[in-house]
Amino acid sequence: MPYTANPTPDGSRPIAVITGASSGIGAATARQLAAAGFEVVLGARRFDRVEALARELGGRAIALDVTDRASVEAFAAANPRVNVLVNNAGGAQGLEPLAEAVDEHWRTMWEANVFGLMLVTRAFLPALEASGAGHIINVGSIASQESYAGGSGYTSAKHGVTAITETLRLELLGKPIRVTQVDPGMVETEFSLVRFGGDEARAQQVYRGVEPLTGDDCADIIAWVATRPPHVNIDHVRVTPVQQATATVVHRG
Ligand code: 8X3
């Protein structure tokens, strides 16, 4: 659905920065925000993919590792103006019970989903405030609100995202910055393939008998929240396929 970006207070073209923009929800968000009139700045580790997308959308691509402070600070320095920041980078690794937790999986998940979120947000806060009408949109997960067996590394990291979103809402009160969290359930992207280390058969099982959300379904919500009037703050949106009631209760047809 087409939405239209709000005019900026200084009349300049609004700029949206999207992390993890090389695929899935991030890439779909870049497309929809560009269609809404934003100039899009795409950050991702896979620079070749993000560069091609930026070219297609008339935006800019920058190599970005959200877990690396120097990379994040260079990314922010290259983008002194920003109106909307979509913190989408993140993901899951493994589905082991805590008794068999894999240190490297936990480190990766906490670094990407939590520490990286802090680094990017901290780096862009001055520019978001200076814009006069900034917006931080954190992409969480159904795992930001629920726990499930085997998921403790990912669910604890995504619960951390919720804590950060809620904290920002308190700390930024009185400043012209909106804060939103969008929590999707089952979305067919590279998420499960990455989680299961490239095991396609296992990844496909996750969506067996379900019509999952697409990256576009989530991007539609992100574009919608980003284009509400500047005084309206959508705090939280949770979205699942109609066949998914909770993280673990799914109707498979
Ligand atoms: C992905 C949803 O249920 O695999 O964020 O944690 S779930």
Helix-strand blueprint:
Blueprint (H helix, E strand, L loop, with lengths): L14 E5 L4 H12 L3 E6 L2 H11 L2 E4 L5 H9 L6 E4 L15 H28 L3 E6 L12 H20 L5 E8 L6 H5 L4 H7 L8 H12 L9 E4 L14
Parallel strand pairs: 1-2, 1-4, 2-3, 4-5, 5-6, 6-7
Helix pairs in contact: 1-2, 1-8, 3-4, 4-5
The structure holds 2-hydroxyethylsulfonic acid.
The site of 2-hydroxyethylsulfonic acid (8X3) has 8 residues, from loops.
Would you write up a description of this structure?
The chain is of the alpha/beta class and 253 residues long. The chain contains 8 helices and 7 strands; from the N terminus they run E-H-E-H-E-H-E-H-E-H-E-H-H-H-E. The protein has helices at residues 24-35, 47-57, 69-77, 103-130, 152-171, 191-195, 200-206, 215-226; strands spanning 15-19, 39-44, 60-63, 84-87, 134-139, 177-184, 236-239. Strands 3-2-1-4-5-6-7 form a 7-stranded parallel sheet, with helices on both faces. Helix 4 (103-130) links the parallel strand 4 (84-87) and strand 5 (134-139). The structure holds 2-hydroxyethylsulfonic acid. Residues 141-143, 151, 154, 185, 191, 247 line the site of 2-hydroxyethylsulfonic acid (8X3). The site of 2-hydroxyethylsulfonic acid has 8 residues, from loops.
Main sheet, how many strands, which sense, barrel?
7 strands, parallel
What structural class is derived from the secondary structure elements? alpha/beta
The total strand number stands at 7
CATH topology assignment: Rossmann fold
